[in-house]
Amino acid sequence: MSKKSKTVFVCQECGYESPKWQGQCICGQWNTMIEEKVVEIREDDSRRRGTSGSRPKASKLSDVKSGDFSRMDTGIGELNRVLGGGLVKGSLTLISGEPGIGKSTMIIQAAAKIAERYGKVLYVSGEESEEQIKMRADRVCKGNLEQLYLLSETNMERIVQVQEELNPAFLIIDSIQTMYSDSMESAPGSVSQVRACGNELMKIGKGKDIPVFIVAHVTKNGELAGPKIIEHLVDCVLNFTGERNQELRILRSYKNRFGTTSEIGAFEMEEEGLIEIQNLSKSFLEGMEHGAEGSMATAVYEGTRPLLFEVQALTAPTSIGFARRSAIGVEISRLNMILAVLERKAGLSLINQDVYVNIVGGLKPDGTSIDLAVALAIYGSYKGISGCAKTLAIGEIGLTGDLRSVQNADRIVKEAARMGFTKVILPNKNATKLCEVPGGIQIIGVISLKGAIQLLHKQ
């Protein structure tokens, strides 16, 4: 007697399954429940774990070989930096970004360089034809492309077949939302299809020690489209950001099992493709004007390098009942705290002032080392004090108005000296711990925000 096929309703946002359709999912989203058939896995199905027939055996941790030295050089220094030194063999890397930001351009450039060094590379595209990829490769890639193979396909079973015949050293899937498996009856991009295709790619990568690059779509809010299951499956999650009408592109890592997530990579979009930016601080500071009100240079330590940039602030009398607080690159909660400290400890009355803060270049720095620069920029804009383009300020502001020390201040000071700064304002604890001060730069240690404001009046 044949069994009836079961169906469930699966949320395309969070993956929640329900036996009945409902308008709103438990995650709060509306009209995301899609009917999907439940596929029963047989005992002899190859998708089950442990299909070799042998009894599973645990291994000693000391007997397992480390993968620290099995990295592949992508040929792109900034990409290697974000990945932690290169691609780990057998790893799955997910990259996302806005349409037209340059994901496919960076991937085809990396694929071409890996093909020259390590052999065959298979580029699978479900969105573009082979002719379109060839046109892009001719424009942005240089060198021999004999080892780069293209495949325009969306069926996962056929992709696996081609991969087994070709046995590439590197596999690229563009994109996971367009792929589907015959074992599922749902549409491509659904929770079941993404899960099935992701598991198949993980089997390829881990089983045959092949690094796999997976491209994913994003929603209008900039988040990864589809369920979170794909982010849990992969080893590294990269995000490519930037404005399409500007040249600067920033590559960040939100998850990395083989390295840090604090590194960033910088690129510039040119006609011949993505060009690496070696001196990122210079590109952020080149438009900084001397004598501008509400402008202050600051720095953060990103991964293994200090990053210098400009903070701009503007205060204006409010024209409505409540004053506005707008920030780009700074958390609004952090901005409100800094404004409260300025009102209480510096005597500023900002209740009837709109306050706007912007990190030039579209950066969103982590940490609290930029607090002092934000406060000085707001104070300078409110009081009409001209800023100095050769002065840099770092430090965390406490609720009592004191300045807390920041990490890697010595390296930030060295980078500031290299970039031509003549004065650095920083917490007194950091100033007393500096082992050596580069020539031509003045180090000023301050204890509180009030002391830093007094220096702003003297410059």
Description:
With 459 residues, the protein is α/β, with parallel strands linked by helices. The protein has 3 domains: 7-37, no CATH class; 70-278, P-loop containing nucleotide triphosphate hydrolases (Rossmann fold), CATH 3.40.50.300; 282-458, Ribosomal Protein S5, domain 2. Helices cover 28% and strands 26% of the residues. It has 12 helices and 23 strands. The strands form 6 sheets. Strands 8-7-9-10-6-11-12-13-14 form a 9-stranded mixed β-sheet, with helices on both faces. α2 (103-118) packs across α3 (130-140) and α8 (332-345) packs across α9. The protein is globular. The termini are far apart.
